[in-house]
Amino acid sequence: MGADAPHPSAMMNAPQARRSIPFLWVLAPPAFLIVTAAIVRSSLGPAFERLPADYTSSVVLESDSRFRQTPDTAFSVFHQQGRRVDQVLSATGDIAIVQSHIDWTTDTGQVNYQTTGLYGVDRKTRQNVAGYGDLSRSGQFMFPPQLRDVADEVWDPYYGGPRHLAFDRNEVVDGLALAVYRFTIADLDETKTYDYLPDVPERFGVGTDGEGFLWVEPVSGTLVDMTDNGHSFFVDPATGKSMGDFSIWQARYSAPSKADLFGAATSVRLRILAAKIWLPTALVALALAWLGSGLLWRCRGARRSAE
To answer: Residue 213 in contact with residue 230, Cβ under 8 Å?
Structure first.
């Protein structure tokens, strides 16, 4: 046999090598696509659901209100505008420190009420975290993405204490499916909040009752609308009895803010659904199509070789 002649074993392995290379191309791309789908779902999806470290939000409210400073004076009736601004000041791991400010101003520019608080918020669940912020709070600060079961209370700057939550209904508004929750709050002690009034706390304490509804887009967890009806009243410290209302309001989100929130909820919802469902599903479907086409091609090739 000549020195340059191929070894018989090499000649026997050549057809096997030619068959194995196409088979690798049948399996490798689908495997890559399936792994990519898993990575997108497990990493990109949760990233879109996590409260961003640079999160900011501004919401404008409107209210028809009645107010008086003492139990024996007449009510003044006016319209006022509220503004809530949330901003993450720092984020470490799963905890964000959020500064939340709210103020109410009459149409003439007079500031009736304002407060600023620091909240420790879990970036995944949006719950208040005990031991963070300027008070030890419980319940939800905001609503979490993929909303299914929610805690029975929310504690944010709209009230000085937690509001009880109860699921009320599902509702479709402007083509967007929303979960609607009813909230209530009763006998909340807000004496410190209203200590600027002439007889508080020297003669009277202050209590607050309120109720309303929250409209939440459940995939993004975005609160897109709110109504709030409530009243604050003077309290006799000796008996604990009400001495009459001094503040009565009917508040709601402004139309421009609702439009902005609907747009934001839709955008975040689409990103989450794309990362957790649509894109992984498309990648897996492409992988199966590739695998099926490759196996079919190999079967046809095997038949031709047999012939």
So the answer is: no
Distances (CA, A) of 299 to 28, 29, 68, 290, 296: 18, 18, 87, 14, 5
Percent of the chain with pLDDT over 90: 72
Does residue 278 sit in helix, strand or coil? helix
What tokens appear for 224 in the block? 């897109």
Q: In what order do the strands lie in the sheet with 242-253?
A: 128-133, 111-122, 95-106, 76-92, 56-67, 242-253, 222-235, 205-217, 176-189, 163-173, 153-154
Cis peptide leading into residue 30 (ω within 30°) = no
Supply 154's token pair: 């929310």
Q: What pLDDT digit, counting tens, does each position of 280-306 carry?
A: 999 999 988 888 887 777 676 666 565
Distance between CA 253 and CA 52 in Å, rounded? 24
